[in-house]
């Protein structure tokens, strides 16, 4: 089975081409491919599938390192745009069919951009239940801590916790939040430091993975949440441990969040199952 290893700001992927509709390897084998010790190693497998809508370039599925499915993956979508551009299937722009709906992809002079869905902040969209909420956000008791956070669906669930200093973020809270009954589908947990109205620092502990070097949908969620609170401008530069991403959203209810950044080819290989 041919594969391509890629990364977007350190968030790394194994890309499989199943646009011919051939069946996917079983889930335990996908998790084996993602294993960093005994497999190829990646945060997610990004699987190209046949287009679902007339005019779309291709569809895709996302499988996390632990073998679970995800509804969206911003950096993975950018890497697929780069893969399809190299393949000749995507010229300057085109639509990809993601599990969460259409994603508009664009080749930039430097890097690749995708327009993910419009952010959703309501509890059923996350999904999230049993938390106390007011206009400034949500609260949950986690052990001895009263955790205040924002919640955003980007097609996948994100908790956004604002911190004063990113290097001192209480990342150990993430595991408890991820398995908390308040989030029946689990969640990705982002810790964000607002440096200025146009510059954020972010760390994300991903569902089904652990801490990643970058999370595209997490960057969109952090930007959208802070913009929703009136605390950032329309565009932010977001520094993650693996590099810089850009997020753009002006607050329109149906307006997609745009995510930009690098998409890098690492190597090609063959997996023997
Ligand atoms: N790395 C991704 C997000 C991948 C999916 C996530 N772990 C989930 O389970 O929702 C990104 O760039 O958005």
TrEMBL record:
User: Pfam families annotated for this entry?
Assistant: DAP_epimerase
**Residues of the active site:** 73, 215
List GO molecular-function terms, semicolon-separated.
Answer: diaminopimelate epimerase activity
NAD recorded as keyword: no
Catalyzes what? (2S,6S)-2,6-diaminopimelate = meso-2,6-diaminopimelate
Give the site residues for Important for dimerization: 267
State the EC number(s): 5.1.1.7
The cellular component terms of Gene Ontology attached to this UniProt record, alphabetical and capped at eight, are: cytosol
The main enzyme category here is isomerase
Site described as Could be important to modulate the pK values of the two catalytic cysteine residues, located at 158, 206
Q: Where in the cell is it found?
A: Cytoplasm
Q: Does the keyword Amino-acid biosynthesis apply?
A: yes
Please name the GO terms of the biological process aspect recorded for this protein, alphabetically. Answer: lysine biosynthetic process via diaminopimelate
Alphabetical list of PANTHER family matching this protein: DIAMINOPIMELATE EPIMERASE, DIAMINOPIMELATE EPIMERASE, CHLOROPLASTIC
On assembly, the entry states: Homodimer.
- HAMAP family linked to this entry: DAP_epimerase
Name of the featured protein: Diaminopimelate epimerase
Classification of source organism:
Bacteria, Pseudomonadati, Pseudomonadota, Gammaproteobacteria, Lysobacterales
Name the gene that codes for it.
dapF
């Amino acid at each position: 089975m041919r594969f391509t290893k890629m990364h977007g700001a350190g968030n790394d992927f194994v890309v499989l081409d199943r646009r011919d509709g051939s069946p996917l390897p079983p889930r335990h084998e996908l998790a084996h491919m993602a294993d960093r010790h005994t497999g190829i190693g990646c945060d997610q497998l990004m699987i190209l599938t046949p287009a679902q809508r007339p005019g779309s370039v291709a569809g895709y599925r996302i499988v996390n390192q632990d073998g679970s499915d995800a509804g969206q993956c911003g950096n993975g979508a950018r890497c697929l745009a780069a893969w399809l551009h190299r393949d000749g299937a995507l010229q300057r722009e085109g639509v990809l069919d993601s599990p969460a709906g259409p994603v508009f992809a664009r080749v930039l002079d430097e890097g690749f951009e995708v327009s993910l869905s419009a952010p959703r902040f309501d509890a059923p969209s996350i999904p999230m239940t049993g938390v106390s909420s007011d206009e400034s956000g949500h609260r949950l008791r986690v052990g001895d801590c009263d955790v205040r956070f924002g919640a955003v669906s980007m097609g996948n669930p994100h908790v956004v916790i604002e911190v004063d200093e990113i290097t001192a973020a209480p990342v150990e809270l993430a595991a408890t939040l991820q398995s908390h009954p308040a989030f029946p589908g689990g969640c990705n947990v982002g810790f964000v430091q607002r440096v200025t109205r146009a510059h954020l620092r972010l760390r994300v502990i991903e569902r089904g993975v652990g801490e990643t070097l970058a999370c595209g949908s997490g960057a969109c969620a952090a930007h959208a949440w802070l913009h929703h609170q009136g605390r950032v401008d329309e565009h932010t530069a977001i520094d993650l441990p693996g590099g810089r991403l850009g997020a753009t959203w002006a607050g329109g209810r149906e307006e997609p969040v745009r995510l930009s950044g690098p998409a890098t080819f690492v190597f090609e290989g063959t997996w023997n199952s």
